[in-house]
UniProtKB/TrEMBL annotation:
Summary of subunit composition and partner proteins: Homodimer.
Alphabetically ordered keywords of this record: Amino-acid biosynthesis, Diaminopimelate biosynthesis, Lysine biosynthesis, Methionine biosynthesis, NADP, Oxidoreductase, Threonine biosynthesis
UniProt-recorded name of the protein: Aspartate-semialdehyde dehydrogenase
Family: Belongs to the aspartate-semialdehyde dehydrogenase family.
Gene name for this UniProt entry: asd
Binding site for phosphate: 102
Stretches for region Disordered: 338-358
Role, per record: Catalyzes the NADPH-dependent formation of L-aspartate-semialdehyde (L-ASA) by the reductive dephosphorylation of L-aspartyl-4-phosphate.
Positions with a binding annotation for NADP(+): 14-17, 42-43, 161-162, 317
Signal peptide location: none
Domain of life: Bacteria
UniProt: substrate binding residues: 158, 211, 237
GO molecular function terms listed in the Swiss-Prot or TrEMBL record: aspartate-semialdehyde dehydrogenase activity; NAD binding; NADP binding; protein dimerization activity
Amino acid sequence: MSTRPPTVAVLGATGAVGRELILLLEQRDFPLDRLKLLASPRSAGCRLVFRGEGLTVEAVSGEALAGVDLVLASAGGSISRRWAPVMGAHGALLIDNSSAFRLDPQVPLVVPEVNLATASRHQGVVANPNCTTILLLLALAPLRRLAPLRRVVVSTYQSASGAGAQAMAELETTSRDVLQGRQPRNHVLPHPLAFNLFLHNSPLDRNGYCEEELKMLRESRKILAQPDLRLSATCVRVPVLRAHAEAVNIEFDAPVSVDAARQVLAEAPGVTIIDDWANNRFPMPSDVTGKDPVAVGRIRQDSSHSNGLELWLCGDQIRKGAALNAVQIAEAMVRHGWLKPPSPSPRHPDQDAPVLQP
């Protein structure tokens, strides 16, 4: 295995998550030999700054991908599916932030604090989970050490950032419209979001759940390796710029005390506790915007049955919900020498895998 730092490409570099990826690579001093910024032909020619140097965004192509060892992609599922074979042909590892490969049984779906070991068994692609799933599992995974999970009911309050940079800009514009007495006009989101909220507009399944809600169920089952996990989600878009919140009800197979849950969460990587009962002060989107940890609070017993807990959490959707999770995966791949697929008969016992600290 070469010790040369990898050449890294960010695909979708001009989007909200792409820009955050670039920022995090710089802030975390990611070990790379060279950074290439890739996007659609429409965005080619833009200049973005990395480590004090202006870099020109290139249109993604086979030529642009030549010589790249690692691709951090956040350009949409169709783009990832189109270019993944080309990346593989060049020997590059794809860490993909779209939904294209998340449920592929051959592709690891990774939250580093939860199931990092699975990333070592990749075949050229590692998938980044949906933002709501990442935030939820940072709390769920440590709690199931206290007792097995039986059922989870979650309601999400999802910021405009989940729909991209243009949706964030539209929220700002329509908020000004409302405040100045004008009729807000939406073009990116299906409804005006300023001073409003609406159920997530992803396609509805025949069972009545939308695609976003089903992602939480299916991805959580895969990441936790618990295919029988019962999870019901209701996803709502709210007029917050870039941090998601979730109200979570958890049923265990046995009673779990609030004190034990609080202690486990306080020690969990990637989690911070904001649980000030005396002042009725619990996590808010403003607490986590631009920050790495997911904030958890209002941890309480479910009064409807003895084996239940309820909690509230907030996390930055662009950061830990997307870009940071991908960069943490990339850091582990470099640190442990996992950039290339393993040999046909690897031994990677999950219980001996390193735990990634935030």
